[in-house]
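The protein record filed here.
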Amino acid sequence: LTFIKPESRISYAPSVGYNDVPEYLVERFREYVQSIPFLSVREEHGADIIKKITGRTATVVLDPSLLLTREQR
């Protein structure tokens, strides 16, 4: 999200996609996550990784694909 003004950056329910962040990406991951003022993830493990690397607490929220019922889609 580096192309968006920092105060407008929002992360809603991304999946971290890693069991662990590879060592060569840790610094870049930290830098990018620190630049997002409003942060959430869709799984506890993702929140744990963010906490471990950045010290930030990410809110765990429902996967966006589950926010609507089949009839509402």
Summary: The first strand starts at residue 10 and ends at 11.
